[in-house]
Design goal:
Layout: E1 2-6, H1 23-36, E2 41-44, H2 55-59, H3 61-65, E3 71-74, H4 85-89, E4 104-108, E5 111-116, H5 125-143, E6 150-155, H6 165-170, H7 176-184, E7 191-196, E8 203-207, E9 209-213, E10 220-221, E11 230-231, E12 236-242, E13 248-254
Parallel strand pairs: 1-2, 2-3, 5-6, 6-7, 7-9
Antiparallel strand pairs: 1-12, 4-5, 8-9, 10-11, 12-13
Helix pairs in contact: 5-7
The chain binds fe (ii) ion.
Residues 47, 77-79, 156, 198 line the site of fe (ii) ion.
Length: 260
């Protein structure tokens, strides 16, 4: 099973070259590079929009994503408008009145996945209770041999913080500790590999869960200083390979690198 992650496209219909960067060209590079990796699935993990999501912007994206040549799943980021996803991307993004977020449990070719909607900058208590229940059920299923003892979690915001002074200070997941507590509660029974974006840099770290932060297709942000500073590099995408036992191998591919 091969999954490609694309994140933080930051597209806009009017402001097409923010900071002098052609974000649409970068998005086309990401789509073409993803397609060349022959994935089974692509996950676009939020911040499709530069500043604010709109029905007009989202309506322009299915033709772009059609170039992937495979199914794709979308997550909203803090710059997106989840209520506008359904009209552009189909019924699976329709919001229910009683659960107005885009959390989804997905079986991707035998790989259990959770997509979590952190576009409000936090996960609500009811979202966390749902995650806890799903992971408890996964644990029971794995114990009776129904599926691998692991889950891939996709979320826009990093849950393990402490590696980016600017983003940790300015735009962290507000209740990251609570989210982390729910996920790590299941760490003895399940291996959890979490994939995120939002921080506009590449990082991997382990603390109860294994977290992979993927660079943006727009610009990268220097993790060292407390103030905003652009870091050269990118655009990039992430390739994630999962074997039948659920073991994960992953690599970030930057433009101008070759990948076989
Ligand atoms: Fe973001």
């Amino acid at each position: 099973m091969r999954i490609v992650q694309i994140t933080d496209l930051h597209l806009d219909l009017e402001e097409r070259t923010p900071h002098g960067i052609d974000v649409w060209e970068n998005a086309r590079w990401a789509v073409a590079t993803a397609r060349d990796a022959r994935p089974d699935l692509v996950v676009v993990s939020g911040d499709l929009a530069l500043h604010y999501g709109s029905p007009e912007l989202y309506a322009a994206l299915p033709p772009l994503f059609a170039g992937l040549g495979c199914d794709y799943l979308l997550l909203p980021g803090n710059h997106d408008d989840r209520s506008a996803f359904g009209a552009a991307f189909g019924r699976r993004y329709a919001l229910r009145e009683d659960t107005p977020w885009l959390d989804r449990q997905v079986d991707a070719g035998g790989v259990p996945m959770l997509l979590l909607d952190s576009s409000a900058g936090r996960l609500e208590e009811r979202q966390l209770a749902w995650v806890d229940a799903v992971l408890t059920a996964r644990t029971a299923a794995a114990a009776r041999g129904a599926g691998p003892p692991g889950v891939l979690v996709w979320i826009h915001h990093p849950v393990l913080t402490g590696f980016h002074r600017y983003m940790d200070g300015a735009y962290p997941l507000q209740n990251a500790d609570a989210v982390r507590a729910v996920l790590t509660r299941h760490r003895r029974a399940l291996s959890i590999e979490l994939f995120c974006g939002h921080y506009h840099c590449e990082d991997s770290r382990v603390d109860g869960i294994r977290q992979h932060t993927t660079p943006s297709t727009y610009m990268q942000i220097d993790p060292e200083p407390e103030e905003f500073r652009v870091l050269p590099g990118g655009p990039a995408i992430r390739i994630v390979d999962v074997d039948t036992a659920g073991a994960v191998e992953t690599v970030v591919v930057y433009r101008d690198e070759r990948f076989d």
